[in-house]
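Work package 3, deliverable 3.1, input record:
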Amino acid sequence: MRTVRSTVWTLLAMAVITLGIAALAASTIASRWNTFSVVRRLTFDPTSMSLRGLLFSQLIIGVLGVLVMSAEYGTGTIRATLAAEPRRARVLIAKSAVFFVLAAVVGEVLAFGGFLIGQSLLTSPVPHATLTQPGVLRAVTGGGLVIAVLGLFALGLATIIRHSAGAITAYVGVLLVVPIILQTLPSSFSQPILKFMPFTISNAMTSVASQGSSAFSPWVGFAILVGYAIVSLAIGGWLLATRDA
Amino acid sequence: MIDVRGVTKRFKDNVAVDDLNFEVPTGVVTGFLGPNGSGKSTTMRIIMGLDHADQGEAVINGTPYSKLAQPLREVGALLEAKAIHPGRTAFNHLWFLAQSNGIPRRRVHDVIELVGLDQVANRRVGKFSLGMGQRLGIAAALLGDPGTLLFDEPINGLDPEGILWVRNLLKGLASEGRTVFVSSHLMSEMALTADHLVVIGRGRLISTGSVGDFIATNAGQYVRVRTPRPDELEGLLEAQGAQIRREGDGSLSVSNLSAEQIGITSGNAGIFLYELSPQSASLEDAFMEMTRDSVEYHGHRLDGATATTNGK
């Protein structure tokens, strides 16, 4: 990955957008605070606000996770890779491990960066959060971890689908399109499904306030997300081992 | 030594490789010949463990490829030119392969120099020409200094100088006692490069043996004879054991009999000859003859029958 130019650009774009949104959201709120209703002021979650840009990171890390695998198929490098290491499970494990570490580091840096930038722009009378307040450290750290796990999920999808466009479409579909469609359906039907969506899980993780019955608690949701990644990687690994390269 | 034992590979309803058995000996260049679509690449991919055989197995020095711990040190392969991430430099591509098999950095520089890419080692592969891609693929194959080498159509896209270079490289590698297995659809190229041949058509083995044997059995000599009394002469020559084929222009192609014997026979019978010329069928002809029934994709002449245009 290091030797491919697009990796650096993708990560750079991810950082700029994520941190930029944190700054933008914070300064917007700071300048409009006087016009907010009482209810809105009381439910304002400064932590969640400053982590909102992570949604873009989730998109971009997914694209990167897909490319880690599908670029090899698109260019034919997979043949060189598998010739160098014919034990295919090891190829997938190695790629997943390297990418997970990268995504976790980038995710944490952006989560903490977004949080700090966002909070620094929230000046009195707007309330701001500190890492020592209950739930804040969990929300920020968790936001970074969600990035890493979603990246692995995308890598697994790409191993199954083997085409960049197809895998990115599937990933964006699960991340954004399905929740939007579900919201147009009756909530008695959509609510139980929405709880399992990465979007909902990530929101619960990055919020300090509880989401009530509409979402799993942060760590239960996170476990479900890890499950997605493991299942996609397991199916992908099995297909990689049995299919012709 | 590469040993292909009863390998069969099906793609949906199409049998790409059909119960193929052959050995690739060490110390010589073995040519792998067959028309387009005859299963050469599939066979090589099965040897490399990239495709799974439905039946049978291919082993390298007794071991399937997938069981090799550091495969690049034992087997080097050029399967597709430019099957490389276009954004990577030539050096980085080789360096990532080298690292996965414990090959020192020094060796990467050596093979880059060997294939003549030292000027462009730090350029992105996407900018490479087909010939440069082939050279990089050859560098990758040589990286681990392996005892067994597979090259799928290595001269594709190379200029005449490059072709000569590959030819000498292959012979040099074989003379060092390595197993060298080279596929081609060009018989003429293999006649110059290979010592041993494996010929396949439609996934089946057609012939295997030394190039010398192949020439002796398949590219026999014949004598072209023109005469005003072909029927009479044909009878006389056949009586002496000749094999005769009547050509479209009325001439006779006589094999199994020398020009001298034909001349004496016709002289004794008082038959005039307008032409008596020894010919040698090229290996290319022999190859075409041999694989004619197994060519997957025939070209068609562009005449009225096939080049009809549809009305609007």
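The two ends of chain B are 59 Å apart (CA to CA).
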